[in-house]
């Protein structure tokens, strides 16, 4: 039995801003970009693979030009159904085509942590440590609506010591969650890092063969805009595919041009290019398409994940990926607020609503404020995800069938009667939304304690701080520690 | 010879052309200034630099978008290039300092460095941008070759910031640490990190990086004296 996620609305009810003709034009222009401008790929092996598979490669500039037929042939090889496995099979995620169910990820691969300090009465930002990675992963494991995990913060201690911090983070995540782990944190500086990721996951699942059947981890290979696949992304493509692990692939559009259509073309071209390369390296690699829109604010030089432009671009790209590639995709919005305030609330709410309305398959909503993991933002995202889950669920009894219209009940209650004690109410009370954190009390009841949503969010943070995830057997953890030590020795740079 | 009022008007027009991020107008006015016999050094210092200072202030107040900052810097650089041949020998304003700017090994995120370079140049520094994914050895070699004053390092990723530490260690190993001021910046970089690795300066953004660079040059000159 896998995770259920949120059942999405049917295609006709989604927000699909593009017409069929517009989608065709975007697709053609993206192919044209790949054919005439190409992608710069900073890895010799991938350049050779591309050349051997029909692309034109300039080894001096490292630019690959992709003929249209090559992109079409290879993107078709990506499987439409696949599994992301969790340590607990109940936490598996099964993709069976786009826009069926949405899964909550809520990541935050950031080097700092932002915590409310009750004594100082202010938010305190500090560098993340390995304990923070453990605690934050436990938060993600604890929360019911989080379906998969990306390392919630980075182990800055390890990074500052010149150690391969991603390996430390992966080990910590695997020991602190029973959900699938996507390595969005990983920016490997060597290909060998992926051997260690695979070995760590294999210890948990029972061997490399088992890991292939039940992929506990997946990689993320993002483009550095515009149209450049950097060193780390190339190592991820090669490393993850070596072990037949799934990938999040594709675009990043921060910072880039201002015109929306141009952004869509650039981003979709990046998606197609990276997907094509992944399939060239290992045909049949399961891929989720990453849509990462963060237009640059031109006055503050900051990335803006929750702007109106961002929502529009996400909607257009989700539609393109779903209709043209028939693959699942992921969007990663965030709030630009620096604390858990009204701005955070409205931006997170808008993000979640638009994600639901576009039918995107994974919601990797970042839980950070300016490079710092903030558990309060996580809780807020989680509450709103639950809200949308309820909305989806209640769509079921909106359908005008006899059972839902309950005409007999209308006749029985008649005019001026009472539905409260009628079986139609009694039997369906449990359908109603019960918010975990929002306050639906009367004013009179509220006056007794005058607590706010923020008070309850902070109380919830304390609650999830106490959670202990199901442990791995000691011998497994010991082996994983040994693997990390070996990696430190071999790959440490200081 | 131009009158004081005529010179002031040229300086004001130059400053305005910079704030208007208009390279053509800037070049036109500087040509006009040369025709009128205005000292090109004064045009740079009292016209172009004044305009650039206003641009920096406006940008700091979020009243001036980034693309215009870069365009204004471009206008100033073009104007300076046009004025240089007219500067009398020995009268050319000396650069405040020489900076080798680079994105560290393993990192290809260069937006920050690209924004910083023209701002440093318009502040009076001579800047040599080495590029992206540059090993520490290469950066040090460039600094040695150019006799730089400051090495400025940008790292956008947690996994690449260690290269800033490695460069400083390499400088110490070569006995060159005291020769250069090292400033660091980039996404995950902080003042704590700067202190930890023994760098001389950290700045969270381009505007403060320019001020930090000026401060480091003052320190350097003071230590020589």
Q: Would you give an account of this structure?
A:
- The complex is a heterodimer of chains A (494) and B (225).
- Chain A is built from 19 helices and 20 strands.
- Chain A is of the alpha/beta class and 494 residues long.
- In chain A, strands 1-7-19-18-15-14-12-11-10 form a 9-stranded mixed β-sheet. In chain A, strands 3-4-2-13 form a 4-stranded mixed β-sheet. Chain A has a 3-stranded mixed β-sheet with strand order 9-8-20, covered by helices on one side.
- In chain A, strand 16 (296-297) and strand 17 form a beta hairpin.
- The radius of gyration of chain A is 23 Å and the shape is globular.
- Chain B has 2 domains: 4-86, Orthogonal Bundle (Methyltransferase, Methionine Synthase (B12-binding Domains), Chain A, domain 1); 98-224, Cobalamin-binding domain (Rossmann fold, 3-Layer(aba) Sandwich), CATH 3.40.50.280.
- Chain B has 9 helices and 5 strands.
- Chain B has a 5-stranded parallel β-sheet with strand order 2-1-3-4-5, sandwiched between helices.
- Chain B starts with a helix and ends with a helix.
